[in-house]
TrEMBL record:
Species in which this protein is naturally found: Actinosynnema pretiosum
InterPro entries: Acyl_CoA_acyltransferase, GNAT_dom
Superkingdom classification of source: Bacteria
Name of this chain's protein: GNAT family N-acetyltransferase
Gene3D superfamilies the UniProt entry points to: 3.40.630.30
Amino acid sequence: MTQHHPATLRRQWAADLTATQLYALLKLRVDVFVVEQNCPYPELDGRDLEPGTRHLWLEEDGEPQAYLRLLEEPGGVLRVGRVVTARTARGKGFSRRLMVAAMAEIGDAEAVLDGQTYVVDFYASFGFAPEGEEFIEDGIPHLRMRRPRR
């Protein structure tokens, strides 16, 4: 019988990522955002290695299954971004686990995100509220969302 090991939560500052970790995380993002969603866009935006960037992910057997990053924005605002789950890992609650961990990092600070419209209710469950009109980014409807400082 195969023994199942639960997904392990990992968190690293940008400077602490190994090249192997960074490659695996970027590959997951490209596999989903560029290939699966058929959105040719510059996924590597230069922000992954900023000193204030925090990377959170869940891995099984050394492979990332879900991921998000927290970026520092002006005024102490934190931006949740690149929330992604591998196709084979969906339906396991991994995005929720990551968001719980992200909210612990964010604490009382103001936070923003640009979420795909179909998951607005998911982000609302963490205190984010839509702000402004829906917009199209890379062919996919999105909404800006904000959670005020607590």
